[in-house]
Structure formats: C-alpha cells, structure tokens
Amino acid sequence: MNNQLRKLQLVQLIILLEVNRICEKHSIRYILMGGTLLGAVRHQGFIPWDDDIDIAMPREEYERFLSACHTELIPPFHLQNSFTERDYVYPFLKICLDDTLALEEGKSDLAIHHGIWIDIFPYDNFPDGKISASVYLFLRKYFLAAMSVLRNYFPTTSPFRKLYRYCATLPVRYLSDNRFVLIREQVYQHYNTRQTKKKIAAAFSAKTDIMDADIFDDVTSLPFEEFFFPVPVKYHDVLTNLYGDYMTLPPEDKRQNHGLLEIDLGMYGDMTKIHRLLSAYKETHLLKNP
C-alpha cells in the first residue's frame, strides 16, 4: 500500500475516533456505512485502496450531533456544512482536520475547508408511494444540482449551457443563502413526521442510498483498525444492496477512490505522532465487542 495513503487513512481514523468520543458522551447513535462498513466486514479495517470514511445517523441523532459539536468539537477539528461555509453544497456534513489538505478534483477553487475529512450522512424517511417518491427524488436532485450550479461547482463556457442553467435555477436563484439551505432541508425532511418503510441518506439520491427504515434499530459492533465501531446487524443486506457480491475483491482496474489531487498531512506526516494520538484514543475508547 502507498505509504501516503496509509497515513491518510489513519488520520481519518483519528477524526472518526473524535466523532465517536462525542457520540459516546452524548449517547448519539450512528453506524459505519458505505465503503467503511465494507472495510469493517471484509478487511477489519480500511479497504486497502479506500481514501475516506463514511458514517450515518438517523436525522434526529444527526441534529443532536450538530448541537453537541457547538461545545464538544474544538480545533483542530472543523465542522463543515452549508451553514458554516457558503460554497459547500452537499446536504451532509464533513468533519475536517485543520492544517491538512485532501484536495478533490473540481473543488480546488472553492472557498471551503479542504482539510482531510470524514463524511457524516443523515438518514430521512423515504415516502412509500411511487408518485410521492418520484417527486421527492426529483426535488432532492434539483436542489443539489441548483446549488452546485450557483456555487460554480461545474463551470461552463458554453453560452447555451449558461442560459439553460440560468433558467433552470430561476426558482431559487434569488433566495438568500440561508433561506436556500433551509428550504432544501425542509424538502429532505418532509416525511420525517410520518412512518415509512424506507429511509434515504441525504446524499446523491441514488437507489443505493435507500435502506430499510429499521437500519438503525438493531446494531452490533465490528473491529475496524483495532477499534470497535457500531454497524447494522443486517450489514449483509446493506452491503449486498450496495455492492452485490461484496466479499469478492473487484479487479484491480475497478478499485477506485476519490482520486485526490493533492494530500498534505501537515504535522500528521509523522507516523510516530499518528500512533501516539491513536494510543490516546485507545485508552478511552468505550465501545467493546459485544
């Protein structure tokens, strides 16, 4: 494994452990998700070529986490969402690390925190009816696309594309920044007062973002890089939905990650410092193998 990638993974693990510390202190429920869940099941740690960490929370726990971060999250950790940074368009938050760099393609010119991060996804109720589900998915995709256009995530020089984008974003173009985000959040959370069979991650509205509503109800823990973290009991169903035959390694040409343009570990480039920080978390890590 590339030594730089391995250091990046361990620095992300430090961020996850800080998030876990806050969650344990405030009894906030979360689970590993996506490639991180797959890594826990198949590798008992990171997928060797992976370069990020994903965790998920029910929306109510996500809001509690945001509230706890006001007092618990201190430098060098930084909370990034659409309220803290205008040019950050995604409907989920990142916890970033100051004085580091993990630069993604197409985002280098954006006025956002570019530090090493982990993703935290809230899950909202997904409507049961076909028509309401279609409308809901359309609105979710529209708000993400519109905000991406308005924040210049996908610049274009084509006058026709510029005209199309201008017209397509007219319904939200003249909203204030906070008003835009608040309306988007209302759309995402519209069904949270109703009981539904499914939940969906506040992410990119792909079919793989939709899970059974009880995904957070039954939780166990699995080892991940010598620590234990919460995972859904039905992780087999989750991973099969996401990846199909998830225990079979993909061919080398399909082993993809974010393809970061630039990584700067800052003071965390020293493996001795990384291990010292991990050891400090290990002494206070409460989550045990059930």
From TrEMBL:
It comes from the Archaea. Residues 23-244 form the LicD/FKTN/FKRP nucleotidyltransferase domain. InterPro entries: LicD/FKTN/FKRP_NTP_transf, LPS_cholinephosphotransferase. Pfam families: LicD. PANTHER family: LIPOPOLYSACCHARIDE CHOLINEPHOSPHOTRANSFERASE LICD. This is LicD family protein. It comes from Methanocorpusculum petauri.
